[in-house]
Amino acid sequence: MRSLRVVSALVVLTLTWPAPGRARVVESLAALVGDDIILQSEVEERALPLLAEIASIANPTEREARANAIRREVLERLVQDQLLAQQATELKLTVSSDEIDRAIEQIKRDYGLSDAQLKDELRKQGLTVAAYRLNTKREILKYRVLNIAVGSKINVGDSEVRSYYDRHMRSANVQVRASHIFVAIPEDADNATVVEREKLAKALLVRAQEGEDFAKLAREYSEDAGTRNDGGDLGFIGRDILPKPLEELVFSMHLGEIRGPVRADRGFHVIKLVDKRTKEAKPFADVEDEIRIRLRQREMERQTKIYLGELRKKVLVDIRL
């Protein structure tokens, strides 16, 4: 991502070159984040793999709506990345070349990749090794900012761990496996946009209930980046994991049933219940560390949203897309 001063950026973005009878705009601006810019070309580059996944949507109106939602999702992530990058600069955080090397070596070990295989995977994604190293550096810096600003303040006490175990794991408990299609509501959406988003969710519900492949619909339409590629699979879930409206719905469903849309968190969900099981209780000592990690991750996610919201209030974010 280019990090230019606003004055320089506006010169570049508004500059027209003399030509007989016409002017040419060099670039399009997607957003301003403080003194930094996000270009439309950056959004398109990041969105390209996701846009390729929806190319098979036959209805052009639906395809365009999905493409616009993808671009909004990508732009929001780029804004968040830029806010965190600015904080890394303010905190004077640095990442050495050796640290980047170690991070990439760990990724190669985790995925069983050789140097040649990694380069091949990067080539398929349109990335050079240099670009991948830069992305890795940015991810390390983001992690460090969040660890300092959020992670260092989170402390999961023994009483919290024990309380969670007593509520959810002391006795045998029911777990469900569900898949979902998530239709996001943009931040600060007006009523017309909310109605349009709900209309799309209802249409997807009908299509799924009439027999279309749920996983295929999720891969094409769901705006949950974390589950979309897996056909919307949420895995096995116990109580107190999902937002309450979703939890109440999914735990009342029968196997194979598809219901919704239900509004929760940032949008509408269409849910399919895939499986249900009763999980036998484990001794506290066997699951204590697992519970602590789970509670810490959950609190980290909650506090990160709050922190990013606070950063956004301090920095002028002007969305142009």
- Based on the structure, what is the oligomeric state of the protein chains? single chain
Largest sheet: 4 strands, antiparallel
Strand order of the largest sheet: 4-3-6-5
Strand content: 15-25%
The top-level CATH class of the domain at 172-279 is Alpha Beta
Please trace the helix and strand order, writing H or E for each element.
HEEHHHHHHEHHEHEEHE
CATH topology of the domain at 172-279: Chitinase A, domain 3
- Number of E-type strands: 7
In CATH terms, what is the architecture of the domain at 172-279? Roll
**Kindly state the mean pLDDT as a whole number?**
86
Secondary structure category:
alpha+beta
Number of DSSP helices? 11
Work out the radius of gyration: 23 Å
Instruction: Report how far apart the termini are.
Output: 16 Å
**Fraction of residues in helix:** 40-55%
Nutshell version of this structure?
The protein contains 11 helices and 7 strands. The radius of gyration is 23 Å and the shape is globular.
Detailed description of the structure:
The chain has helices at residues 6-14, 40-53, 60-90, 97-111, 115-124, 129-149, 158-168, 191-209, 214-221, 244-250, 284-314; strands at 29-33, 36-39, 173-184, 233-237, 258-264, 267-279, 317-319. It has 321 residues and is of the alpha+beta class. Among the domains are: 6-87, no CATH class; 172-279, Chitinase A, domain 3. The strands form two sheets. A four-stranded antiparallel beta sheet has the order 4-3-6-5. Strands 2-1-7 form a three-stranded antiparallel beta sheet, with helices on both faces. Strand 5 and strand 6 form a beta hairpin. Helix 7 packs across helix 11. The radius of gyration is 23 Å and the shape is globular. The protein starts with 5 loop residues before the first helix and ends with a strand.
